[in-house]
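Appendix B. One record, verbatim.
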Amino acid sequence: MLKAKLAAAAAALTVSATLLAAPASASNIQSLEGIVAQEMSIEEMQAVTGELNAYDIAAELSALSAKYATSAPRLSAYFASLAAKTLVNADRLNAAFKKLGVLTECKSCTP
C-alpha cells in the first residue's frame, strides 16, 4: 500500500511539475508532449493501479503537507502548492487518465 501511495505521489509530482512549466493560457496538457517516456514494468504498473485519480492524488499531497507542516514547513508548502495545482487541473488530468485507461474511482471524494 505504501509503495502504491509513493508511486502515486511520484506521478503527481511529475505531472504537477510539468503543469507548472505550461503557460497559463494552455487549454490542454500540451506540456506533457516534451516528456520522454519509457515503458513501465509489470511491477511498476501494478504499484500504481488503483491510485490514478487526480482528486485522490491531491488528497495524498494535502495529507503530506499536513504531516510535514511543523517539521518541514517549506516541504509542507510545496506539497500544499502541488495539491492546489492538481485540484485546479483535476478534470483535465482525469480526462487524460481516462483516455489512457488508468482512471480509477475517486476514493477521497464524498458522495
